[in-house]
Amino acid sequence: MKKLALMALAVHLPAYGMSWFPEEPEEPVVEVPEGAVSFIAIGDTGTGEDKQYKVAAAMKAVCDELGCDFALGLGDNIYETGVDSVDDVQFIDKFEKPYADVDFPFYMTLGNHDNGWFSGDGLDNDKGEFQVDYHYAEDRMSDKWNMPARYYSFTAPLESEAPLVTFFSLDSNPLAAVSDPDPKYRQFKYYRVQEEWIEAEKESATTPWKIAFSHHPYISNGRHGNAGWYDGVPAFGYAFYDFVGDNLCGDFDLMISGHDHDLQILPPVERCDGMTQIVSGAGAKQRPLDDVNRNPAEFQQGDVLGFMHLYIEGNQLTVRVYTVDEVTGEHTLAHSYQLTRD
């Protein structure tokens, strides 16, 4: 058995001084079997407002009950246009403070609002570099933020010599938005560089499970819709559609994304063999679903806050969908889904 809240990538527990105040009773440590992986998927979080705090409290309550090794942060980490430096106070107001009571690491990916000139245009990808830099900052409030590069991989269980899952954090924004004026992020060039990386990472990965996470979804019944037809615009996001089709479909078990502010579990579609899509973008904002018949759905719910808890043991994955009342903060188990690898 192992204790949860293991840290990776040089994450350290804070040290507390002595106090004459009575000590609060320690919370029971929830344990999961060796070789199991338990984590949260949550996106579109970085408002610093009451709804983010309510979802964070609900997430902590679920993790106290079920156990969590880490969370996947699915982009739009800092609304509305990202940060302007590694010392930007928004890191504290929109990440550190809302998740101060959550005691495990977050593995982050970049969204369009993290790379924005104006709101969610996604046209200033240089801004995303500050969020990578924050991973390496020595004076940050905690060591929870993990984003060692714009795209990267890690394995779980954390620190295991025989991991069960390889996670691949994708940088979807340069491929899903209108092409960035900075030549470094031009779609064709960035596509090739990221493709070379993922091909090498797939070749070296030895785990049974392979899970990708990104901000932009491949398919979605929410307002933004499917890649290649985002926001009802023909060919919008086609580079990302092509990237997923060429590099993930047929090789990955699961893709987890945000961007649409709703909760969806979508089974594999014919053009993407074997890969289930999860959308969990209701971490601080909610929005109604757009077209519930656009893609077949195992579960879908819009206009509600929430997140998902995922548990993998052996060849079985269990997804629990939690909704959160925006007024009371009460969380409810809305759906449970199981997926078994062949």
Automatic annotation (TrEMBL):
Alphabetical keyword list: Hydrolase, Signal
Lineage: superkingdom: Bacteria
Signal among keywords: yes
Pfam families, per the entry: Metallophos
Ranges for domain Calcineurin-like phosphoesterase: 39-262
PANTHER family assigned: TARTRATE-RESISTANT ACID PHOSPHATASE TYPE 5
Name of the molecule in the record: Calcineurin-like phosphoesterase
